[in-house]
Amino acid sequence: MNKFHATKGVPVGSLSPGSPPLLEFAHVTVMRGEKKLLDNLSVSIREGEHIAILGPNGSGKSSFIRTVNREYYPVISTDGRVVFRIRGREVWDVFDLRSTFGIVSPDLQYTYTRNVTGREVILSGFFSSIGLFNHRITPAMEERAEQVLRFLGIEHLSDRPMDEMSSGEARRFLIGRALVHDPKALILDEPTNSLDLHALHTFRQTLRTVAQSGVGIIMATHNLADIIPEISRVILMREGRFVHDGPKEEVLTDAHIGNLFRVKVRVRREDDWYYARGY
């Protein structure tokens, strides 16, 4: 069981060079009715990589995450070019994906705006349920929940109902819910929406702690300032396509970000954080 020890000095993705990618897409197109959400996407993500998918609202970031999570499925290709693999496998039980990906999304937080304690939220991750209902909680589950609470530094909030927490506090419990299965990667969809300045700082520090523990980060965001220093690769997305993919210092430039958001910007780097300012 993952005790949240960081792997010092070694990129996690390089630990098993012969292993298949964590995630591999090739020529993936997703349709919803007549609308094309993803357009011929190809990408390979190694285990342990920390990646940001950056793009404006409506660019397809959430659709990409829903495709990874098997909520959406690619259009079947007649020529066999479509590749859709997770850890080298094309066929997965949706419940088995819980041990590979932990998902944190605005929809999940909205669903959890109810009288459920933080501890119950974390334990519900074992069952992919909203609350515990009649599920049987084992001592091992209780122990794991305590580990997660300590790791995230939220033990003092564990008995507080979610509908009495701030947005930032609630989001940290959703991260805890996603971590109970020791996922290979934590996937976050617009993770800092609705957070105030203090909550932003705390939440980003939480993400840095998770990244340093060896859990990969795959973050979809429209905000450069969400890209924590541990993220080394950035993919730019627009109109359902990946338009740039590479090391963040090569991708986060005035020209690339200006073209992505269709506005003139000046990208500034400060202590390995990136910010965009208008002219």
What does this structure look like?
By secondary structure, this protein is α/β, with parallel strands linked by helices. The protein has a domain at 12-100 and 185-193 and 216-279: P-loop containing nucleotide triphosphate hydrolases (Rossmann fold). The chain is 27% helix and 25% strand. It contains 8 helices and 11 strands. The protein has helices at 61-68, 106-111, 118-124, 139-152, 167-179, 197-212, 248-251, 254-261; strands at 23-32, 35-45, 50-54, 83-86, 101-104, 185-189, 216-221, 233-238, 241-247, 265-270, 273-278. The protein has a 6-stranded mixed β-sheet with strand order 5-6-7-3-8-9, with helices on both faces. Strands 2-1-4 form a 3-stranded antiparallel β-sheet, covered by helices on one side. A two-stranded antiparallel sheet has the order 10-11. The chain is globular. The N and C termini lie far apart (50 Å). Mean pLDDT is 87; it is low at 5-15.
